[in-house]
Amino acid sequence: MSTASKPSASPAASSLTQPVNGQKADRVFRGVAYACGILILVTLAAVALFLLFRAWPLIGGDQQANSAVIENFTGGKAKSFWGYVGPLLFGTVLVAALALVLAFFVSIGIALFISHYAPKRLAAVLSYIVDILAAIPSVIYGLWGGLVLVPTIYPFWNWIAEYLGWIPLFAGPAANPPRTVATVALVLAIMILPIITSIARDIFLQTPKLLEEAALGLGATKWEMIKLSVLPFGKSGVISASMLGLGRALGETMAVLMILSPGLKYSFKLLQASQNQTIAANIAAQYPEADGIGVSVLIGTGLVLFVITFLVNLLARRITEKAGK
C-alpha cells in the first residue's frame, strides 16, 4: 500500500513569502525610527516648556515687581532680569569663544599629525591618549586647573600684562592668584581639544585615497596634498567638531566654578579677577542657597543658555550644510 507524500512548497511560493516578510520588517523598523525621532523632539520640547513656564513670571510679568525681586536676589548688583543675565551671557560667550580659539588650530594640527605624518605605532598611541583625554570628567580638569595651573601660571600672565598691557585684553595688573577668564579659557581649551582632535582625526582618515594619490601624482608636496584634498574634504566635519567643542565650553560648570573668581561686568580684561561669570557656573554656585524666587531667576538664566546653545547648534548645522555642497 503506497503512502501519498506531502507536496513540497514550490520555489515560486517561497519567493513570494520573502518580500512579504521583508516589507513587514521594513514597516517595523520605520515605525521604531519614527518613534525615536519623535521622542527626541518631545524631550526637547518638554525641557524648553519647563524652563519657559518656570521663568515666565520673571521674563514677562510685572517688571516693577520683578525688579525688586532681582535686586533683592542679587544684593543690589542688578535691578532687572536682563540686567542680571546680560553680564552672565557675555561672560559665557567670552570664555567659550576664547577656549575655541585657543583649541581649534592646535586640535587640527594634532589631528593632521596623527592621520598623515606620525608612524603607525605612534599614531595609535596618540589616538589612544586623545580618546582617554576626551573621556576625563570636567571636575578633574577643574581640580588640575585650581591646584596646579593657577599657582604656576601667574609669572606668565604677569609677563603678558607687563609687555602686552597696552592691548586692552591684557591690561594689568595680572591678578595673583590668577583666577581669571584667561586661566579658565585655557583650561576649557585643554578640555575641548581632545574632542575636536578626535572627530577631525577620524574625518581626515576618511579622505579618499584616490584624491590624495591624484594630488601627489600631479607633483604636489605632502602639505599641498593636505591643503588641496584633505582639508576641503573634511571642512564640514571640522566645523561640526568645533561647534561640538564650543557647545561643551558654553555649558561647562565645574571647571569654571572651581577656578574663576566671579563678577558681573561687561569686561574684556582677561587677566584681572572678579570681572566675568558664566551662566552655568552661576547656577551651580547660587542654587544651593536660592529660595523659590531665586530658583525661578536661575531657571530663567538657564533658559537663556538653552536658547543660545540651540542657536549655536542651528548655525553650525547651516554652516555644515553649506560647506558640504
What would you note in describing this structure?
The longest helix has about 50 residues, at about 10-60. The chain has one domain (about 60-325): MetI-like fold, CATH 1.10.3720.10. The protein is built from 13 helices and no strands. Helix content is about 75%, strand content about 0%. With about 325 residues, it is an all-alpha fold.
The sequence of SSEs as H and E is HHHHHHHHHHHHH
Q: In CATH terms, what is the fold-level topology?
A: MetI-like fold
CATH superfamily: MetI-like
**Strand residue content:** under 5%
Share of helical residues: over 70%
- The number of domains: 1
CATH class: Mainly Alpha
Report the C-alpha radius of gyration, rounded: 27 Å
Give the overall shape, derived from the CA principal axes.
Answer: flat
Q: Helical element count?
A: 13
- In this structure, how is the largest beta sheet organized? none
Question: What is the β-strand count?
Answer: 0
- Give the N-to-C terminal Cα separation: 77 Å
Low-confidence stretches: none
Give a nutshell description of this structure:
The chain has 325 residues and is mostly helical.
